[in-house]
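Reviewers of the previous submission asked for a worked example of the structure-prediction workflow described in the proposal, so we include one complete record here. The input consisted solely of the amino acid sequence. No template or homolog information was supplied to the procedure at any stage.
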Amino acid sequence: MNEITSFHLDVLKEIGNIGAAHAATALSSLLNTKIDMSVPSVEMVTFDEMVERGGGAEKVVAGTYLQIDGDAQGGMFFILPVEQANHFIRRLIQDENFDLQKPENSELGISAMLELGNILSGSYLSALSDFTSLKIYPTPPELSVDMFGAIISFGLIELSQVSDQVIVIDTTIFEESMSREEQVNGHFFLLPNPESFKAIFRALGVE
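From that input alone, the workflow returned the following structure tokens.
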């Protein structure tokens, strides 16, 4: 993991932007409005920096988590502030009263959040698979609404045995009717098996 350079991260950013374009198309169809997405940055950060990026250990967020199997293995989180997640879900299910933090959440709303995480994570991993010709299989996502520190610790237990860093893929989601101040800023946290990243970059022709 410590051998990953800025050039490697640029490769991941380019793949991320291709995945974001695919995800934007899917979200535009779901919401019946034009959605633009981009990946402004990809960075390697320590666990402590990752917590800061997520808004702090005690910030309540909505997070989807899926495992990555196949020729590359690891895990991926997609994290959104709860208020921004609520915005998308309300649009998807046409229910302005939906709130992820209320215990009486509808199954439809939960399914919508899982589908959002599935589209975004799946689009990135699909682009990665296309570029590398590696077989990458994401598992169905799981949803948690909790403090960021509690959610992310689930995926760090195994990774912490071999590394103290993760890949952060910043993602900007911009809806046509939004002002720039209202754009949604989410984060992917890619927790790879270090051997898997060697396989990925080897497949990309990057040593």
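The first strand starts at residue 35 and ends at 38. We consider this example representative of the routine output the project will generate in years two and three.
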